[in-house]
Amino acid sequence: MYMSPWVILNDTGGAFAMGAIGGGIWHFVKGAKNSPKGERIIGAITAVKARSPVLGGNFAVWGGLFSTFDCALKGIRQKEDPWNLIASGFLTGGFLAARGGIGAATRSACFGACVLAIIEGVTFATGRFTSPPPVMQVPDIRPQSPNPQ
């Protein structure tokens, strides 16, 4: 069974955590930089509390939609390959930009597909260059003794 709600929920939670943690670091630095000299830590913490959950939620929406499309494509196509991920990026980008009209949705869908194609290409190349070379089979050239019977 390809489409599992647990996979989608897990991916959504992971995307939220990634967005919230990355957003926490980003907004901490930004809040500290934009605060007056004596209140940098308080300004940084306030910025993190205000903006990190929002960024985490945005990541969770993207991750949940992407995982849903990926699981659906795996179920429809009955195979698991890079084309599912690229198509999922296309569908997610288009779906999230649909409110902006057909032009914005098309641009965003193409951008999503390109980003996923680049990620898949880098993953493929990295795996190919880091895998050990194939082991060469050496033929056994020793003379065979006759089978005693």
Automatic annotation (TrEMBL):
Membrane topology annotation: Multi-pass membrane protein
One Pfam assignment: Tim17
UniProt keyword annotation of Thylakoid present: no
Source organism of the structure: Rhizophagus irregularis (strain DAOM 197198w)
Family listed: Belongs to the Tim17/Tim22/Tim23 family.
Protein name: Tim17p
Signal peptide (UniProt feature, chain positions): none
Compartments, as annotated in UniProt: Mitochondrion inner membrane
TM region(s), chain numbering: 6-29
GO cellular component: TIM23 mitochondrial import inner membrane translocase complex
